[in-house]
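INFO  loader      accepted 1 record
INFO  loader      residues=183
INFO  predictor   begin
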Amino acid sequence: MEELEMVLLEAEDKMDKALAALEKELSTVRTGRANASLLDCISIEYYGVMTPLKQVASITVPEANQLYIKPFDKSVCKDIERAINASSLGLTPQSDSNGIRLILPQMTEERRRELTKVVGKMEEQAKVAVRNVRRDSNDEIKKLDLPEDDEKQALDDVQKLTDKKINLIEEIASKKNKDVMSI
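INFO  predictor   done
INFO  writer      dumping tokens
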């Protein structure tokens, strides 16, 4: 029975990790408002090492459609500008004496619809990850040679956990789609 509990705990842990990965991925999808997590994918070379932007600068949101990047060391301003230009964000940095301003253009209806498709793909990947955990857990349970009733109960428990996590994934994705589509 202790082995069974371990299988169930491990399954829940892995499913939670799939949820966390989805939330992290979704944070990079742009909504109508500026969000500092948009820049999480940007790294610059700082003293010979690739360093995430948030470790070399503070990122603030002065207005709903603006991000302001203030580097701790002003000598990296040009490197930050280059990294933003080279990224897939499609934003043009505007430099002033203290930092870099990014103005996010209004998203078109077409772009919003494209982003909801991206969110849908991310949602489906998370669901597949959860289902893979369910499959692996079910295989582990079947290897334990439990009495038939106990095995059936354990498989039901895994299915209930899977359903719960998939519903959470759908809620998270639905909320993100709502954010993307709101103007």
